[in-house]
């Protein structure tokens, strides 16, 4: 029996890498049902750098999650909260250190709306070979590959 009935996890998941995989796999390890929020093309259109199209990012996510024997739903989101601030069926949220503050904001909104706060599961940084966290930005800059190897 898994610890939670339903957890949320979200992100842009651009330049899908080992850190993203750890974030997603953690959600599947602890929950019977996983809600994955992925930022829409509209949400990321004003970023300073190019982001892969949402349909490509979703396709990549589906390829990863098909191996899990867990119910899941992938939803496009148009803000940093997705539906985590309003979904009464959620029990927990899986985040990185980078997005932990957003989870705290979500809980504040939930409590103000009469919902239970979510348990916050924070994953550790996944480090590249140089000991610095793997990130889409570092991959985009050509510093590392998606597995964290130095280029």
* Poorly predicted runs of 5 or more residues: none
Note the main sheet: 5 strands, parallel
User: What is the radius of gyration?
Assistant: 15 Å
Q: What structural class do helix, strand and pairing data support?
A: alpha/beta
- The mean pLDDT is 95
In the sheet with the most strands, the strands line up as: 3-2-1-4-5
Q: In the CATH classification, which architecture applies?
A: 3-Layer(aba) Sandwich
According to CATH, what is the topology? Rossmann fold
Q: Strand-and-helix sequence, N→C?
A: EHEHHEEHEH
Q: Which percent band covers the strand fraction? A: 15-25%
Terminal-residue CA separation: 42 Å
What do we call the CATH homologous superfamily?
HUPs
Extended strand count: 5
Number of domains: 1
| Helix content range | 25-40%
CATH class: Alpha Beta
Textual characterization of the structure:
A five-stranded parallel β-sheet has the order 3-2-1-4-5, sandwiched between helices. It is globular, with a radius of gyration of 15 Å. 31% of the residues lie in helices and 21% in strands. Helix 4 links the parallel strand 4 and strand 5. With 151 residues, the chain is α/β, with parallel strands linked by helices. It has a single domain, classed as Rossmann fold (3-Layer(aba) Sandwich).
